[in-house]
Amino acid sequence: MSKIFAIANQKGGVGKTSVAVNLSASMAHYGKRVLLVDLDPQGNATTGSGIDKSAVENTVYEMLLGESTAADARVRAEGNYDVIAANRNLAGAEIEMIDIERREFRLKDALDALRDDYDFMVIDSPPALNMLTVNGFTAADSVIIPMQCEYYALEGLSDLVGTLRKVKANLNSRIEIEALVRTMFDPRSTLTQQVSDEIKKHYGDKVFDTVIPRNIRIAEAPSFGKPVLLHDPQSKGALSHLAFARELLDRQGVPVKGAAA
Ligand code: ATP
Ligand code: MG
User: N or C: which end of the chain has fewer CB within 10 A?
Assistant: First the structure.
């Protein structure tokens, strides 16, 4: 029975997709069976996993509209995890889902069929609190929130937490915050430190010890269609993502075989 993480923050460009792709690759590296679900019409998690988003026959869009099963929509990525791809068609799904029954549950209902096939599912959300994101929250067991330690970082979080509260009350009583992960972290910046302290004050031990540094290898890996672990396994970026995955697995009490991060 897989555990499902939604990666979400309605703020754009904070590192959601980077965390989704690299967490999937890192957990696969640790021998876990992983499915990455791209729930963003930008399709960045799809491309970043080396999959041609215009060539995939069945995507998350067909799956949400009931035209494909989850099993028929998954494709294998080079990083040893499976992907349910997204492309621009998904942008229309929100409107097309208005009249559909159980519209908040479409993703959950589809993914439930695969819960014995994977140890973990990772859902990459779009930078919005819309019907797609709500589908992700309804399907998920918990939420991982990537955030950049900059001045406005905390402002958007209250909207996110408010949405999660509503989802918990009405759609998915299991949902909780799993982790806040600080991305593009620059330890030399005073502002980074101040915002980081503030985040810890509000969210305590939900804030993971592992930080993801600003690292050029992480930024360039998607242009090769690879997780950073395959692009440059010894880079600080790859090691930090392995460490993050390891902290996540440790906190679940899931044993990790093989090399230390
Ligand atoms: P969106 O809201 O558009 O979906 P996002 O939250 O998914 O964005 P990413 O696409 O993961 O954010 O990252 C935004 C940009 O920053 C990308 O160009 C990515 O390659 C780069 N980036 C992400 N993480 C890092 C990092 N740790 N170091 C350097 N660059 C990074
Ligand atoms: Mg993204």
Answer: N
Residue 16, pLDDT score: 98
**What is the C-alpha to C-alpha distance for residues 244 and 73, in angstroms, rounded to an integer?**
28
Phi, psi of 171, deg, nearest 5: -125, -35
pTM here is 0.97
Domain ranges of the chain: 3-252
- Using DSSP bridges, classify how beta strands 142-148 and 3-7 pair: parallel, antiparallel or unpaired: parallel
Report whether residue 49 contacts ligand 1, using a CB cutoff of 6 Å. Answer: no
With the most atoms of ligand 1 within 8 angstroms of its CB, the residue from 17, 42, 157, 240 to mutate is 17
- CATH code of the region 3-252: 3.40.50.300
Closest ligand to residue 45's CA: 2
How many other C-beta atoms lie within 10 A of the C-beta of residue 194?
12
Rounded mean pLDDT, 150-174: 93
Per-residue pLDDT reduced to its tens digit, 59-117: 999 999 999 999 999 999 999 999 999 999 999 998 899 888 899 999 999 999 999 99
127 lines ligand 1 (CB under 6 A): yes
Place of tokens 């159980």: 102
DSSP state of 142: E
Ligand 1 mutation target, pool 11, 16, 18, most atoms within 8 A of CB? 18
Residue 182 Cβ < 6 Å to ligand 1: no
- Between CA 238 and CA 210 the distance in angstroms is 12
